[in-house]
Amino acid sequence: MKNQQLTTVIAELKRLAIERKRPLWKRVATDLEKPTRQRRVVNLWRVDQVAKEGELIVVPGKLLGEGELTKKVTIAAAQYSESARAKLAANGSTLMSLTELTKKVPDGKNVRIIG
Q1: In this structure, are residues 71 and 46 in contact, taking their beta carbons and an 8 Å threshold?
Q2: What is the CATH number of the domain that holds 62?
């Protein structure tokens, strides 16, 4: 995600947090504002360990392809590796941008942050 895109996403998340009174979006925006080195890095094995089948997952950082994913989930991440993308596609899971997630679930219900 480029800096201009990231700035736009952060502003949108903060706006949603205020309008919808959802601290989830504020938390994601705050995590994305951190320097790249301090952002979360999550491997697929961790998602598989924590997530439930069909769950919506937010990774406010980078999603890496280490490990296997046995559950079908929807993941929105700021960044992701090509191996993570390939493994999600092979599993039948969905990978979306944070902007797509905020449009799909603006109130943030049933969304889990993993990191």
Answers
A1: no
A2: 3.100.10.10
| Predicted structure pTM score | 0.88
Residue of 79, 4, 23 lying closest to 13 (CA atoms): 23
Which residues span the domain enclosing 8?
3-113
Q: What is the CA radius of gyration of the chain?
A: 13
Q: How many domains does the chain have?
A: 1
Q: Two tokens at 35?
A: 């320097």
Supply φ then ψ for residue 73, to 5 degrees. Answer: -135, 170
Q: The tokens 């049933």 sit on which residue? A: 110
Question: In this structure, are strands 56-64 and 111-113 parallel, antiparallel, or unpaired?
Answer: parallel
For the chain, 115 residues long, the average pLDDT of each consecutive 10-residue run is: 86 94 94 92 96 95 95 94 95 93 91 91
Would you tell me how many other CB atoms lie within 10 Å of the CB of residue 81? 17
What tokens appear for 32 in the block? 């994305």
